[in-house]
Design brief:
alpha+beta, Nuclear Transport Factor 2, Chain: A, six-stranded mixed sheet, 3 helices, about 25% helix, about 45% strand
């Protein structure tokens, strides 16, 4: 299994049908809002996004591998189910660390915007930000 091709396909259909087999059972995940260990927690987070948000889209801009490290650049967007249906956009990047079995043991997301900016997007349109 080519990890880069698998990740590209996962990004295209996100959050539907992720290839969880590429993750170590004790995977470490961190982003600006949360930090945890374990594939079960990771699956719960993806399921939460799939269930709660509408029109979730993860656009992959770049992906490359150097040794056991995979780096991606992306934009995550969704519509929050509030009466005024704000569209949230988070540009960011991920650093994934692979073990010898080619499984992801660490997945760290970095946002190119602040947590406050993401909250603000729920209340102000892009024209008023």
């Amino acid at each position: 299994m080519d990890i880069l091709q698998t990740l590209k396909a996962d990004y295209q259909r996100f959050p539907n049908n992720p290839t969880y087999e590429i993750y170590d059972p004790n995977v470490y995940f961190k982003d600006p809002l949360t930090e945890f260990r374990g594939l079960t927690r990771y699956q719960s987070m993806i399921q939460f996004m799939k269930t709660w948000f509408k029109d979730v889209c993860l656009t992959l801009h770049d992906i490359h591998r150097t040794g056991q490290k995979v780096k991606t650049e992306w934009t995550l967007s969704w519509t929050t189910p509030l009466p005024w249906t704000p569209r949230i956009v988070i540009p960011g990047r991920s650093e994934l660390l692979l073990n010898d079995e080619e499984r992801i043991v660490s997945h760290i997301d970095y946002w190119h915007c602040s947590r406050f900016n993401v909250i603000k997007q729920h209340f102000f349109t892009s024209k008023t930000r």
